[in-house]
Amino acid sequence: MTLARSALCLINYSRSSRCLGNIRQISSSSSNLTLTKLTSELYDVKRGPYGFVSDKDIRTFESILGEQRVITDESVIESYNVDWLNTVRGQSKVLLKPKTTEEVSKILMHCNEQNLAVCPQSGNTGLVGGSVPVFDEIILSMQLMNEITSIDPLTGILQCQSGCILENLNTALASHNLTMPLDLGAKGSCLIGGNLSTNAAGIRFLRYGSLRGSVLGIEAVLADGRVMDFSSTIRKDNTGYDLKQLFIGSEGTLGVITGVSILAPVKPSCVNVAFFGADTFEDLLSLLKLAKTSLGEILSAIEFLDSSCMKEVGEQLGMPNPISEHPFYFLVETSGSNAAHDGDKLDLFVENCLESNFAKDGTLATDLSKIQSIWNLRENIAEALKCKGYTYKYDISLPTIKMYDIVNIMRKRMGDDCTVYGYGHLGDGNLHLNVVSKEYDANILAQIEPFVYDYTASLKGSISAEHGLGFKKKKYIGLNKSPEAISMMKNIKQLLDPKGILNPYTTLPS
Ligand code: FAD
Ligand code: 2HG
Ligand code: ZN
């Protein structure tokens, strides 16, 4: 059945209202801290041969930071010991809050000498159990390293300390008509150093590509306190190995990122969002193709969610579905600089969607608040599922055409004890498969893993498309990387952190 254009629920559809600023909301919280079992109780893991923090160590830290920024009060440290998902809990007794690279350097030099393990932490929004200690690692919080050094309006180069909140950077750039090449649901809490350490991708990956291309320079402190200055504000530099790339995506295992320079693109002056309902995943794939061909260079995001996700954001968070109910939902965003041009393209796209019958219902958002409410549905799925119960998260790259098969497979496999959800970055072939049960259950975990990872590997996908390996996935690295590659990674770790004090229980297999 071909829908008439009038069947679309068009929200304030007018050319003049299409030009928008940047939008979207933050979602970050932590709940039920007391219910979380210790990681060492939930998982089979042994403490490494590290020293224990003594009173003498505390006095050394106080001499570097002053008393106020050396925190030993358990009630304050508690939330730093638990991850955002409330699924892993460490037992750290010391939280350090440096403000400068020099302070980070002195802290690490001391920890290395005394063989004390350290967990660097930024916004603690990581989803793989890497941002909190496993045992009693010292937590090195980057929250106070939040100075923006410079923004060059001509070149778009932003220089800052690594502890700046992603959303604050975006706000600062906006006054220069610039924007961050990265955006994600945790933007109000995550810090740019955490984003780099996980090589976060998010919803602008489709437009601006990997952070690896946007980062021009990095300053990092090695485990022994040496400051590595890879800072650069030039775009092109082919002199030798690009060492800064080692620190991007290495999840705090090779050094602590303290400074960053990033190339910020010009802020699009005109943003629109279209949201459609579809009957099948095949129809979503057809919409994906249409979006690419009709919208071309103004495309900035292509996302999807299934009806089970829509149900939870409604039930758990009270967010209404703006269109009629469908098995799948397709979200497409355009960002450009010419409202008339973008509007023409979008009109053609909407017509194509309707005539082809791939979209069964839809809405077009052209003003800031409507756009935001549609993005809120997508960006709050993680939060809604967290409210529902214990979430087993799988962030996988798959051939786009087969992306949803595993969701159906898992629904059959898991039966009635769990609910299975599928959503993600459709334009990037990145599925977020989430399984939710009432509470953590090792038997349920055994039903999911390694099954999902083996399945992903059999299709030559990635077992971690964007969240990293952290503590929870490190033992599966061999499904994506060869023994030779893992051995080379271990050699690099040995070279940069010979005592293995930085995030010792994450990323690389033991
Ligand atoms: P943390 O969680 O504090 O740390 C992450 C890792 O980096 C840890 O291993 C930590 O030890 C290490 N680390 C932190 N800071 C430093 C540093 N300065 N130097 C060295 N190592 C460091 N990820 C995506 O890729 N795409 C998404 O769309 C996305 N959406 C999300 C939505 C929500 C609601 C949430 C809760 C998370 C989401 N994430 C997403 C996951 C997450 O990776 C990002 O939130 C973010 O990149 C983590 O940044 P953070 O500042 O919170 O770092
Ligand atoms: C997203 O894209 C994040 O919303 C979180 O990467 C994914 O919670 C998840 O599974
Ligand atoms: Zn994601």
Question: What can be said about this structure in brief?
Answer:
By secondary structure, this protein is an alpha+beta fold. The chain has 18 helices and 16 strands. Strands 13-10-12-11-15-16-14 form a 7-stranded antiparallel β-sheet, with helices on both faces. A 5-stranded antiparallel β-sheet has the order 5-6-9-7-8.
Key traits:
16 strands; alpha+beta; Uridine Diphospho-n-acetylenolpyruvylglucosamine Reductase, domain 3; binds (2R)-2-hydroxypentanedioic acid; single chain; binds zinc ion; 18 helices; binds flavin-adenine dinucleotide; 5-stranded antiparallel beta sheet; Alpha-Beta Plaits; 7-stranded antiparallel beta sheet; 4 domains; Uridine Diphospho-n-acetylenolpyruvylglucosamine Reductase, domain 2
CATH architectural category of the largest domain? 2-Layer Sandwich
Number of domains: 4
Helix content: 25-40%
Strand order of the largest sheet: 13-10-12-11-15-16-14
Strand content: 15-25%
Per the CATH scheme, the topology name of the largest domain is: Uridine Diphospho-n-acetylenolpyruvylglucosamine Reductase, domain 2
Bound molecules: flavin-adenine dinucleotide, (2R)-2-hydroxypentanedioic acid, zinc ion
Q: Give the C-alpha Rg.
A: 23 Å
The best one-word shape is: globular
Low-confidence stretches: 1-33
Largest sheet: 7 strands, antiparallel
Number of strands: 16
Tally of helical segments: 18
Q: Between the first and last Cα atoms, what is the distance in angstroms? A: 57 Å
The CATH class label of the largest domain is Alpha Beta
Secondary-structure-based class equals: alpha+beta
Q: How confident is the prediction overall: mean pLDDT?
A: 93
CATH superfamily of the largest domain: Uridine Diphospho-n-acetylenolpyruvylglucosamine Reductase, domain 2
